[in-house]
Design a protein that fits this description.
The chain has two domains: about 30 residues; about 70 residues, no CATH class. The protein is of the alpha+beta class. Helices cover about 40% and strands about 30% of the residues.
Amino acid sequence: MDKYLIVAIVFALCILMIIYTQMGSRLGASGKKTLKQQVQAAFSQYTVIEKHDTIIICEMNQRQQPEELVVIRVDPNQKKNVRQFGKRVTITYAKQPSIREIKKDVAAYLPPGR
């Protein structure tokens, strides 16, 4: 009888642990910021646009049109890649990058003094 009691307690603890971890992930997900919100907070002096799952850091030109400076893509099929096309830079990440990593990669391409 003691064996069944121990098995039942361990089973109940496993069930409670699963419920606790699942509830924690749901509660944490609602408080998380999206990548666009994180980039907007980090680069508040620029305009941040999201198009087709791509984050674009823009600067308004004299005609009040957004001029793309940095394009950030997350593509699991590619490794980290930085390509420059004139003034615009496209940075591709394999997984969602941290803000620290984005700041480090973007710092060389954004105009100074802003």
